[in-house]
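Q: Please design a sequence for this.
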């Protein structure tokens, strides 16, 4: 049996967008959708102002019921299950996502410096999730309504950031599979950045990895992608190699994308989000898929 798509549910605007995205994705994958509401009432609150457990349960059930109705109106054929969890939201969502095909969370709107806000719960889940997860912006529906060159369900191209010197099959598998399922193009971006000519020359002289010329990088990217072109012949693929910082190129490429895919290294201990992934999840205007890899 295929694993479900799991979506975190609360009463925020970004949650509505996440539920819509997750419902569409569950329908595309032909799998079920699990709506998870996780909350933890602060123990230090005064008892006089703390709502009863019954009141909180009624509120959560009403919220989940409203989300179920929203999904049925959007994707009536998607099987659904709901779950209420009392506990730390990040821990509960990580547990729910451990047996999911995909975990979906809403990501709040623009902050004061023009980047998207990713709250503490979202950051913790991104840093520790063992399976792919997607962060969805509040304007998902508005962006899809104005999509250019849409696929069969209105979604636009997929953008993938790839390091040709450290190719991860998990990222290529996810990006090609998603593009194939939604009948949209895949745009693969590889960049390189030299902090300075002296540093570059010293690294090469000390036996460090030679980044090669642009032509060599284009060839390396083509070689890395070639097996996936064969596996997914229906996916239209474009490749881009360019000097500069990866995050900037990916955010720019994501301006007319339906999804941008980045990786996160699974650490043996502790949690860590790489600088490129951190920048993309805060600044890309479209949904962002974070794919953990070894």
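A: Design:
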């Amino acid at each position: 049996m295929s694993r479900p798509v799991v979506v975190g549910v609360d009463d925020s605007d970004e949650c509505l967008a996440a539920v819509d995205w997750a419902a569409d994705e569950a329908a595309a994958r032909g799998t079920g959708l699990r709506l998870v509401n996780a909350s933890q009432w602060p123990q230090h609150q005064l008892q006089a102002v703390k709502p009863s457990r019954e009141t909180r349960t009624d509120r959560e059930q009403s919220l989940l019921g409203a989300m179920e109705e929203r999904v049925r109106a959007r994707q009536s054929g998607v099987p659904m299950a709901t779950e209420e969890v009392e506990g730390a939201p990040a821990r509960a969502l990580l547990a729910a996502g451990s047996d999911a095909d995909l975990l979906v969370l809403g990501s709040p709107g623009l902050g004061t410096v023009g980047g998207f806000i990713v709250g503490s719960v979202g950051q913790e889940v991104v840093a520790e999730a063992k399976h792919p997860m997607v962060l969805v912006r509040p304007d998902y529906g508005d962006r899809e309504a104005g999509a250019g060159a849409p696929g069969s369900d209105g979604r636009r191209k997929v953008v993938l950031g790839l390091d040709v010197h450290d190719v991860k099959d998990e990222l290529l598998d996810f990006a090609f599979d998603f593009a194939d399922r939604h009948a949209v193009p895949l745009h693969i971006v590889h960049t390189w950045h030299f902090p300075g000519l002296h540093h570059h020359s010293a690294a090469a002289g000390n036996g460090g990895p030679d980044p090669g010329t642009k032509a060599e990088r284009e060839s390396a990217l083509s070689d890395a992608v070639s097996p996936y072109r064969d596996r997914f012949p229906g996916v239209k693929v474009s490749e881009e190699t360019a000097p500069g910082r990866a995050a900037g190129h990916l955010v720019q490429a994501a301006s007319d994308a339906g999804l941008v895919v980045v990786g996160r290294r699974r650490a043996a201990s502790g949690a860590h989000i790489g600088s490129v992934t951190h920048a993309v999840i805060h600044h890309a205007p479209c949904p962002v898929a974070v794919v953990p890899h070894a």
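Q: Thanks. Anything notable?
A: The first strand starts at residue 5 and ends at 8. Residues 53-74 form the longest helix (22 residues).
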